Amino acid sequence: MTTTNEEAKVFTKQEIQAQIEALKELGSTVSFYLAGSSASGGPFGRGAVIIEVNPNLLGKKQKKYNTYIVNVDGTQLQPKGEVFFGSDKPKDLASWVKDRHYKPTGR
To answer: What is the value of pTM for the model shown?
Structure first.
């Protein structure tokens, strides 16, 4: 991750989905900076999302992916707290992320 919004890469929905689908190990993660969330900090100003392969996936009624909204201090993601929501669908997750993953104008 980088330090300014000019340097931080904005991914396409397809790139986001591919990165999510590439997660194979339980507990593995990928993160994206956000410009539209309740968190703060980071190059896009509104924190980041962490998408994790659910480490408890073998349990009953578990979603494959957990999402966490986190604050960013400089370029450091803060520790994840409670799961924001879960999903089994990388395409839906990619759409949700892309709606919030962009460089804000006027910064």
So the answer is: 0.88
pLDDT tens-digit profile of 62-71?
A: 999 999 999 9
H or E stretch including 67? Answer: strand 65-70
Distance CA 87, CA 51 (A): 10
Q: What confidence tens digit (pLDDT) does each residue in 20-69 have?
A: 999 999 999 999 999 989 899 999 999 999 999 999 888 778 999 999 99
Spell 31-60 as b/e; 16+ CB within 10 A means b.
Answer: bbbbbebebebbbbbbbbbbbbbbeeeeee
CB 84 within 8 A of CB 65: no
